[in-house]
Write a structure and sequence with these properties.
single chain, 87 residues, mainly alpha, rod-shaped
């Protein structure tokens, strides 16, 4: 004797929403690439650049030899370049 199969029934209160037909995608204008601004490669800090800045610092301090040390000026110039370049 053949068994009767029962179809799975969904609860009466829950129905699946009717499926909407798929709409064709609208043809959009091709995307335009926005060029990025060119970034300059970082210029390496040279010994001459530091020397020039140290000299400017020395000039700024009115050539006061008794209170102005060349090593201190050099270190101050290097520190300024470190701040500018982020290193």
């Amino acid at each position: 004797m053949a068994k009767k199969t029962r179809a799975a029934k969904k609860p009466a209160g829950k129905r699946s929403p009717a499926k909407k037909p798929k709409e064709a995608k609208k043809a959009s204008a091709p995307r335009r690439r926005i060029p990025r601004p060119a970034t300059a490669a970082p210029v390496p800090v040279t010994r001459e650049m530091v020397a020039k800045r140290a000299y400017e610092i020395w000039q700024k301090k009115n050539h006061a030899a008794h209170s102005n040390h060349p090593v201190q000026n050099w270190l101050e110039a290097e520190a300024e370049f470190r701040v500018r370049t982020g290193k």
